[in-house]
């Protein structure tokens, strides 16, 4: 197997975890299968840079002295807000020659500025998705997934999703067993599916201003198996169904039905990850009623079945945090 060079681009204001997270994954893979990866860090001039948290990183070399890598990884951070034009020019010239272009967090902005994301479906940190889409209309920005792989280009959301994406790349290169060993060593799950949402349902939706609607939101979260139809929720809020549905959407940014769907999906995911409860039991506890209904919901939202989700997200060797579903 040919050795793959992974080059991480460093710059002032880089987010340190965007660098060290993927670096730990690839270095773990190199330790498991020596000769697999050649890891390099580089800056424009070969000099040290200061991260957004104040750490100083000393690179291996300058970008000018590095050959075209197999995998070019661009992290994010405050330094992407006003990028050095010389860095953008370097990416524009050299990026297309790498077999894989990878970004973590707002590193996608640098790739977009270099014209390397045109025509691709991508993601970035949720706070910058709208800006990326507005500034680069030829880029298809998906604000929901934790990472997106589209041909040569792979982009990820916040800092921890860079680890998830790196694990996915290692699994592609070296197989699941190697990636699983690395994930266990780093005490992370192998692996969050790329289309898993960046937010939990409670974070994705706004919190309602009015207390009755806010109370209903809490009720939904705490009672996913109850009757959560619009009429039942409206009665709990003391409003007519029509008024409730309109007010809920206006104050939370989503419909009652979609919010319920998100809460139930999140509840089921958590039970699959954290418990040994059976699929039928979890489907009832999460409000789906039947395993088939839960299966359809998982396929629609995550592109995978509940059983496959559990297999990926909760390795058999991972100790239980609870022994059964509540």
From TrEMBL:
It comes from Streptomyces davaonensis (strain DSM 101723 / JCM 4913 / KCC S-0913 / 768). The lineage of its organism: Bacteria, Bacillati, Actinomycetota, Actinomycetes, Kitasatosporales. SUPFAM superfamilies: Class I glutamine amidotransferase-like, Homeodomain-like. It holds the Pfam family HTH_18. The keyword Transcription regulation applies. GO terms for molecular function: DNA-binding transcription factor activity; sequence-specific DNA binding. Keywords: Transcription, Transcription regulation. InterPro entries: Class_I_gatase-like, DJ-1/PfpI, Homeodomain-like_sf, HTH_AraC, INH-QAR. Residues 214-312 form the HTH araC/xylS-type domain. This is Transcriptional regulator.
């Amino acid at each position: 197997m040919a050795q793959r060079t992974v080059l991480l681009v460093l710059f002032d204001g880089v987010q340190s975890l965007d660098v060290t997270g993927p670096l730990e994954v690839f270095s773990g893979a190199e330790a498991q299968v020596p000769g697999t990866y050649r890891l390099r860090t580089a800056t424009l001039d070969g000099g040290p840079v200061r991260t957004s948290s104040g750490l100083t990183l000393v690179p291996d070399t300058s970008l000018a002295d590095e050959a075209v890598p197999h995998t070019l990884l661009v992290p994010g951070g405050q330094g992407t807000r006003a990028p050095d034009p010389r860095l953008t020019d370097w990416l524009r010239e050299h990026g297309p020659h790498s077999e894989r272009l990878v970004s973590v967090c707002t590193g996608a902005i640098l790739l977009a500025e270099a014209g390397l994301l045109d025509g691709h479906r991508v993601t970035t940190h949720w706070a910058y998705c709208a800006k990326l889409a507005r500034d680069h209309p030829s880029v298809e920005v998906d604000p929901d997934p934790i990472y997106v792989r589209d041909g040569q280009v792979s982009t990820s959301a916040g800092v921890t999703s860079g680890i998830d994406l790196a694990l996915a790349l290692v699994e592609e290169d070296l197989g699941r067993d190697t990636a699983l060993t690395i994930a266990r060593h780093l005490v992370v799950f192998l692996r969050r599916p790329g289309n898993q949402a960046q937010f939990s349902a409670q974070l994705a939706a706004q919190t309602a201003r009015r207390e009755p609607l806010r109370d209903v939101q809490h009720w939904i979260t705490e009672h996913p198996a109850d009757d959560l139809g619009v009429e039942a929720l409206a009665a709990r809020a003391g409003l007519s169904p029509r008024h409730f549905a309109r007010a809920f959407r206006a104050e939370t940014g989503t419909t009652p039905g979609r919010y319920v769907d998100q809460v139930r999906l999140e509840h089921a995911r958590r039970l699959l990850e954290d418990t040994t409860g059976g699929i039928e039991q979890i489907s009832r506890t999460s409000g789906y009623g039947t395993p088939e209904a839960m299966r359809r919901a998982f396929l629609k939202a995550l592109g995978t079945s509940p059983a496959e989700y559990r297999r990926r997200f909760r390795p058999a060797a991972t100790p239980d945090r609870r022994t059964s579903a509540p």
